[in-house]
Amino acid sequence: MSEGPTFSRKLLLGWIAGAVVIFAASMYLMGQKEHEGPDNTGPSTFSRSAIGHAGIFDVLQRLDIPVIKSA
């Protein structure tokens, strides 16, 4: 019943160190972008290609549920 550890201490520390390095590299590569305002590339009720959003807006308006179109 008393078996040795599944992973050696060196291997475990190597995996932890590798994970920390990868995490730090991903944080560095993401960079510090300045906030430029709302994301205007996503779908909205103003977008002609987002028929579903406009449709839901129209249905809610017809049901007399207050909705607001925001930019």
Helix and strand arrangement:
Layout: H1 9-30, H2 51-62
Model description:
The protein has 71 residues and is an all-alpha fold. It has two helices and no strands. It has helices spanning 9-30, 51-62. The radius of gyration is 26 Å and the shape is elongated.
Any key phrases for this structure?
71 residues, 0% strand, mainly alpha, 48% helix
Order of helices and strands: HH
Q: SS-based structural class?
A: mainly alpha
Q: What oligomeric state do these chains adopt?
A: single chain
Percent of residues in beta strands? under 5%
Low-confidence stretches: none
Overall shape: it is elongated
Report the radius of gyration as a whole number of Å.
26 Å
Question: Count of DSSP helices?
Answer: 2
What is the helical fraction, as a range of percent?
40-55%
Largest sheet: none
Number of strands: 0
How far apart the termini lie comes to 66 Å
Instruction: Please state the average pLDDT score.
Output: 80
Could you write a compact summary of the structure shown?
The chain has 71 residues and is mainly alpha-helical. The protein has two helices and no strands.
